[in-house]
Amino acid sequence: MADDTEDVELDFAADEQERARRSAVIRHPLASFFHLFFRVVAILSYLLCDWISENFASCFVLIITLLSFDFWSVKNVTGRLLVGLRWWNQIDEDGKSLWVFEAKKTTRGNNIGTEAEARIFWLGLIICPLIWTFFFFTSLFSLKIKWLSLVVASISLQVANLYGYLRCKTVGKDGLPPDTHSFTGQHLLQRPDIIFGIL
Amino acid sequence: MAAAEEASRPFAGLSDVSISEDIPVEGDISVPLGSTRRDDEFSTLDEPVKETILRDLRAVGNKFVHVLYPKRSTALLRDWDLWGPLLLCVTLALLLQGGAADSDDQGGPQFAEVFVIVWFGSIIITLNSKLLGGTISFFQSLCVLGYCIMPLTAAMAVCRIVLVGGSGTVSFAVRLAVVTVSFGWSTFASTAFLADSQPPNRKALVVYPVFLFYFVIGWMILTFSPSQ
Fold first, then answer.
1. Which residues form a coiled coil (chain A) (predicted)?
2. Which among A198, B132, B200, B222 is placed 20 to 30 Å from B52, CA to CA?
């Protein structure tokens, strides 16, 4: 039971559909599906490559293509939809490179994912690089060197997203950007609903 | 008179009051935004993703055009992306396959070797230019080096076509000419983009590894021979 001092959300304005959407377990089924789809299919292709095709090159191209699509979709779409995090790199006018990590504050009425989606997101993000690291050691010790190049490429693609989102997450926890004075893009600081962290 | 004046400018006396910077001023202003515009962009997954994809494709195509006509511009540098280099690397590796690489002889480079040479070579060149004091960032340099492989990939396609006709002296001469031209083009294009970011007395030290890099790729293309 909520005690008397707790605020109770009163949503007179929300209609049936809105309420159903807010109380759904998974708000973005398509994004959740695609978040896991490319990664899992890439891992399965690596394991079943001998059955798919005898040609090493086609398997290589298939896995790299799948992981590139996965990298793009996790970075640009599913991170924003499922957990409200985003990271990117921009070059300012001086030619200096700036890494920006963005975390959305959980205000009411936001369409970020539920807890189930957040769990799907982080589990998918963490477990797949671990599996690829395991493949790294198996291919290293069985001396299949050409597969090693594929595994190294896969690990770098997957770990890049993992690292980016972990940095977004720590930014969200701290609340304040570490070094506001050195940042030149003042216009970005005027958005009140976003917390920034800047490299 | 004075009272009326003071009444008309009630805050006049406060014009020189300022808050000392030692005193922390904090508070919480929450602006009730409606559903943010950016969320609306992705509320339906289909349409906006198509737009994003088209935008990325247009950016990649734009960079390819800039490699074809290399002038000193910052288009390649400002919005870097690694899609072009990935595509070119895959195409080059697939073209360098065929014949001799399927059997395990040392006839041609294996598929993964091309990848390793291109990416590892680009990383080494980038590290070299950064150690020499270049101002370009890591991924920008990878982007430029990757996109400038395009003339060599085109040369590889032409060589494959020429080799269909035969592999005698004439075809070798034609291939040599094509590869030399495209090697010069690649090196010229990449130095046109990279040169500005280097300190002036180190330009040769930076250009030399780029020269070597494209030379190795050109060599792989020229010495490619299909299996009989």
1. none
2. A198
Does B49 fall in a domain?
Answer: no
CA neighbours closer than 13 Å in the CB half-sphere of residue B200: 0
Q: Do B42 and A68 lie within an 8 Å CB cutoff? A: no
Residues A197 and A171: beta-carbon distance below 8 Å: yes
pLDDT tens, position by position, A162-191: 999 998 888 766 654 544 433 434 444 444
Q: Which two tokens stand for residue A67?
A: 């992981």
> What are the distances in angstroms from CA B98 to CA B94, B177, B225, B227, B228?
8, 22, 9, 7, 11
Show Cβ contacts of residue A129 under 8 Å, excluding neighbours closer than 6 positions: A155, A158, A159, A162
Which structure tokens are listed for B112?
């993964």
| B39:A149 CB<8 A | no
Instruction: Report residue B12's pLDDT band, with 50, 70 and 90 as the boundaries.
Output: low
Is any Cβ of chain A less than 8 angstroms from the Cβ of B144?
no
Q: Over pLDDT 90: what percentage of chain A?
A: 31
CB contacts, 8 Å: A149 with chain B: 112, 115-116
Min Cα separation B178/chain A (Å): 26
**Are B111 and A57 inside 8 Å of each other by CB?**
yes
User: Does residue B6 lie in a domain region?
Assistant: no
A5 pLDDT band, cuts 50/70/90, is low
**Mean pLDDT along residues B190-214:** 82
Q: What ipTM goes with this model?
A: 0.71
Tell me whether B33 touches chain A (CB under 8 Å): yes
Mean pLDDT for all residues in chain A = 78
Domain holding B220, by residue range, is: 80-99+109-228
B223 vs A: CB within 8 A: no
Going by C-beta distance under 8 Å and a sequence separation of 6 or more, which residues neighbour residue B160? B95, B98
Which of B52, B79, B137 is nearest residue A76 as measured by Cβ atoms? B52
Supply the pTM of this predicted model: 0.73
* A57–B93 C-beta distance less than 8 A: yes
Of the segments A111-125, B21-35, B150-164, B189-203, which one has the largest average pLDDT value? B150-164
- Give the model's pLDDT for residue A80: 84
Query: Does the residue B128 lie in any domain?
Result: yes
Residue ranges covered by each domain of chain A: 60-174
- Which chain B residues have a beta carbon less than 8 Å from that of A68? 83, 86
- Residues in B touching A146 (Cβ below 8 Å): 110-112
Residue B5 falls within a domain, yes or no? no
> Cα–Cα distance between A174 and A105 in angstroms, integer?
12
